[in-house]
């Protein structure tokens, strides 16, 4: 059994009944990456990940054949059932209330993907007869421009196209959301050395022209500074990822929030846990609902992710002027928001078929199950938003969390 077979890797996995062959590299992309390495020498892993996921023409998310979603390579919680969005809608309504029910409440969602969360939220407000259904407006901040159209279609299909506004930099009064976005930000890879120094792991080419890992001097002092600042010293030979891009992302996300809530859901750990020597690298690749640890396979046709450093996120958010309201698990967050009641209401609805109820129930169980996505971290930050009494999503305290 490889490290990849341990339960930790099954985070976004749903079983594929008929395993499919690997798709192979995106030919033009792998050629471009090889050419860049031949011309300029080994590239940082962050540069490689940037190209593999976000090359404008051939990147996994941004390319023309961008696949993720139900029929793609993984399934996120909001994609698995709208009950996730119904629960988040409750948190948004509470936020709107605490802000004094402003006339417009704007949600800016980063990495909205296929629009599953957006649709779930709007549907959840409508199902509950929430007074927020009128004032809510929605903006999409997506690196994959084609996805904005997908979200528009998705909202149109539930009769809610009018909530969508073009995105711009105007700070919102409302909420900023990011579900499984930070794990998709490019990371640098490093390795500890006997003398306590760090080396960086670059992407180079072997004699046959295949991608390979090459160790060298760190490309930026920020890598060591990040780990030092967190009191982390990697053991000799310990490989790890450092996401410097999270700082910029948090700065932008915070700047876009005039008043309200920043809600981040992702898999990750505080630095002291993330960088425990026994964990090793937490870089993962997803393809066809299978997870493995070879980032150099299927370049441009597989997702690449790294567990999120929650300590770094909290520091960057507070440095950007936000107040940390709390961090909990996805299970506790959904429980606090009454996801059980939402399921019971669905069951009692005479329009609900048995199949629809069973689908919702099994999806919710996976969202709550710590072996599936229940242990994901949910981080709540506010600006001009009262944190007491605790927001409903933070009502259940979880051991070891703020
Ligand atoms: C794993 S998918 C999650 C999609 C969706 N949030 C969900 O839960 O189903 C990550 C998404 O984040 C987007 N993304 C990555 N970095 C981003 C950034 N800096 N700004 C906006 N979107 C980003 C990608 O294009 C992709 O759609």
3D structure, described in words:
There is one protein chain. The protein has 13 helices and 16 strands. The longest helix is centred in the first third of the chain and has 16 residues, at 83-98. Strand 6 and strand 7 form a beta hairpin. The chain starts with 26 loop residues before the first helix and ends in a 19-residue tail after the last strand. It is α/β, with parallel strands linked by helices. The relative contact order is 0.15. It has 2 domains: 3-71 and 188-242 and 270-306, 3-Layer(aba) Sandwich (Rossmann fold); 77-184 and 248-267 and 310-385, Rossmann fold (3-Layer(aba) Sandwich). It has helices at residues 27-40, 45-54, 77-80, 83-98, 116-128, 146-157, 222-229, 245-255, 271-274, 310-319, 330-336, 339-348, 354-368, and strands spanning 43-44, 105-110, 136-141, 172-179, 188-192, 198-205, 211-216, 239-242, 257-266, 268-269, 283-287, 290-292, 303-306, 308-309, 323-329, 377-383. Mean pLDDT is 92; it is low at 1-11. Helix 8 crosses helix 10 and helix 12 packs antiparallel against helix 13 (354-368). It is globular, with a radius of gyration of 21 Å. 33% of the residues lie in helices and 21% in strands. The strands form 4 sheets. It has a 6-stranded mixed beta sheet, sandwiched between helices. Strands 1, 5, 6, 7 and 8 form a 5-stranded antiparallel beta sheet that branches. It has a 3-stranded antiparallel beta sheet with strand order 12-11-13. The structure holds S-adenosylmethionine. S-adenosylmethionine binds next to helix 3 and helix 5.
């Amino acid at each position: 059994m490889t490290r990849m077979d341990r339960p930790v890797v099954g985070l976004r996995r749903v079983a594929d009944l008929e395993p499919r062959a690997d798709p192979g590299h995106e030919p033009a992309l792998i050629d471009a990456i090889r050419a860049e390495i031949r011309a300029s020498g080994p590239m940082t892993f962050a540069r490689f990940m940037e190209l593999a996921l976000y090359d404008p023409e051939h990147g996994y998310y941004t390319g023309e054949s961008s696949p993720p979603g139900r029929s793609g390579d993984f399934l996120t919680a909001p994609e698995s059932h709208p009950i996730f969005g119904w629960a988040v809608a409750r948190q948004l309504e509470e936020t709107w209330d605490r802000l004094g029910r402003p006339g417009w409440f704007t949600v800016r969602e980063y990495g909205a993907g296929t629009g599953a969360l957006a649709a779930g939220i709007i549907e959840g407000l409508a199902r509950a007869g929430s007074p927020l259904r009128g004032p809510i407006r929605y903006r999409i901040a997506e690196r994959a421009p084609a996805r904005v159209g997908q979200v528009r279609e998705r909202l149109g299909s539930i009769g809610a196209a009018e909530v969508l506004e073009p995105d711009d930099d105007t700070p919102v009064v409302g909420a900023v959301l990011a579900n499984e976005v930070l794990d998709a930000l490019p990371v640098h890879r490093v390795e500890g050395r006997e003398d306590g120094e760090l080396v960086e792991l670059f992407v180079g080419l072997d004699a046959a022209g295949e991608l390979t890992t090459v160790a060298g001097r760190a490309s930026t002092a920020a890598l060591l500074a990040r780990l030092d600042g967190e009191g982390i010293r990697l053991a000799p030979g310990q490989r790890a990822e450092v996401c410097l891009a999270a700082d910029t992302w948090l700065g932008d996300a915070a700047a876009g929030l005039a008043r309200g809530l920043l809600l981040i859901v992702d898999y990750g750990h505080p630095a002291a846990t993330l960088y425990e020597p026994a964990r090793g690298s937490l870089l993962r690749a997803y393809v066809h609902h299978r997870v493995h640890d070879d980032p150099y396979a299927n370049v441009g046709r597989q997702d690449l992710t790294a567990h999120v450093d929650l300590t770094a996120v909290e520091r960057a958010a507070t440095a950007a002027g936000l107040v940390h309201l709390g961090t909990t698990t996805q299970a506790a967050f959904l429980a606090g928001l009454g996801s059980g009641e939402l399921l019971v209401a669905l069951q009692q609805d005479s329009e609900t078929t048995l199949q629809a109820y069973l689908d919702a129930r099994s999806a919710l169980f996976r969202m709550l199950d710590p072996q599936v996505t229940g242990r994901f971290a949910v981080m709540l930050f506010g600006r001009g938003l009262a944190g007491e009494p605790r927001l409903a999503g933070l009502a259940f305290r979880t051991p070891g969390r703020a």
